[in-house]
Amino acid sequence: MSASIVLLSGGLDSTVCTAAAVRDHDSVLALSFDYGQRHRLELEAGAVVARHYGIGQLVVSIDASRWGGSALTDPSIAIPEPGAEGIPATYVPARNLIFLSIAMGVAEARDADAVVIGVNALDYSGYPDCRPEFVESFRATAALALKRGVEGRPVAIETPLIDLGKPDIVRLGVELDAPLHLSWSCYRKGPTPCGDCDACQLRAKGFAGAGIPDPALDAP
Predict the structure, then answer these.
(1) Alpha carbons 65 and 160: distance in angstroms, whole number
(2) In the chain, at which residue ranges do the beta strands (DSSP E only) sit?
(3) What are residue 164's phi and psi, to 5 degrees?
(4) Ordered mean pLDDT values, 10 residues apiece, the chain (220 residues)
(5) Which of 8, 52, 98, 106 lies 20 to 30 Å from 61, alpha-carbon distance?
(6) pTM of the entire structure?
(7) What's the sign of the alpha-carbon dihedral 129, 134, 136, 142?
(8) Terminal C-alpha separation, the chain
(9) CA distance 39 to 192
(10) Per DSSP, what are the bridge partners of residue 58?
């Protein structure tokens, strides 16, 4: 019997990732982070997705707004327009490094076999902590740092979306019957997606490329 921890933000990618975790593992716990993000609707979406699957959810609070440096946690920093050069202001310093570290701790404490994360190396915003080389390096470090690793039972890091473009992620979500209509991708507060930010643009690109209407646009 396999158990996993899935990082569930409530966005499109993490919702599809949760569907994959439910498919691949007997027991799944959703791990979500309240890190002071402006787009708190994604956190609410994550709770709804977890309830949809009938899986437990652990919400960990980390106030990243206290160290700043990101448009997602500091309202004084403007959400950048899509297509800006370099790493965008929506990058949250060390976010996935911190999230994966905590996920590994939870996995070890609960004797879970894997951590599932929806990082993607193709259609993403240029964040350095979404790259395969980061995941591989972290995987090796975690194996050295955890009791399970020392005992020869390292916690796996599964990245089912790592080589998929956004259209392929949408197609996989449909194939897995993931509740895409419940997911939230916008970097702004809402109550409806702005349609202009990088997250909205990448989501729109994904559904358009897959030739599938976005069900969230028709959701009440």
Answers:
(1) 30
(2) 3-7, 27-34, 56-61, 114-116, 156-158
(3) -100, 140
(4) 95 97 98 92 95 98 90 88 79 93 97 95 77 93 94 96 94 98 90 89 94 83
(5) 52
(6) 0.93
(7) negative
(8) 38
(9) 11
(10) 31
218 vs 164: CA distance, rounded Å: 25
Say if CB 183 and CB 10 are below 8 A apart. yes
Fill in the DSSP letter of residue 91.
Answer: P
Query: Do 49 and 8 contact (CB within 8 A), yes or no?
Result: yes
- Predicted confidence at residue 143, as pLDDT, reads 94
Question: In sequence order, what are the beta bridge partners of 170?
Answer: none
From CA 90, how far away is CA 125, in angstroms rounded? 9
| 144 burial level (CB within 10 Å; 0-12, 13-18, 19+) | exposed
| Burial track 44-57 (b if 16+ CB lie within 10 A, e otherwise) | ebbbebbebbebeb
* Domains parsed from the chain with CATH numbers: 3-217 (3.40.50.620)
The distance of Cα 207 from the centroid of its chain, to the nearest Å, equals: 18
